[in-house]
Design brief:
Blueprint lengths: L11 E8 L2 E10 L2 H18 L7 E7 L10 H4 L23
Antiparallel strand pairs: 1-2, 1-3
């Protein structure tokens, strides 16, 4: 298991899903808090696979975007996060590669 070092640059951080050229923001935004997004990667992966078994073949990670974009992540409600989530519930800190385990 590799531990991702949090990015300290300012911006909105999200947990992401990637499948080829398609991608989505699953959880966030976490303003200036990359660690919060990192902490939710494994949990978002599990939930995405429960909702759509084909998500097992997708890659999961994090992304930073400018403050101009602040739409809530697609799984925020499932995770019990507020739409503009400031804080996240702590989870395992991982970065999971396509089709693999943490």
């Amino acid at each position: 298991m590799s531990v991702q070092i949090p990015d300290r640059r300012p911006g909105n951080y999200y947990v992401t899903i990637h499948d080829g050229a398609r991608f989505g923001f699953l959880a966030g935004p976490f303003k200036d808090d990359h660690q919060a997004a990192i902490d939710l990667v494994a949990r978002c992966q599990e939930l995405a696979i429960q909702l759509d078994p084909w998500a097992h073949f997708s890659a999961f990670g994090t992304a930073r975007i400018d403050y101009d974009y602040d739409k809530p992540g697609k799984l925020n409600a499932h995770l019990g996060l507020a739409p503009g989530c400031a804080n996240a519930v702590s989870a395992e800190t991982t970065h999971t590669q396509k089709g693999g385990a943490a």
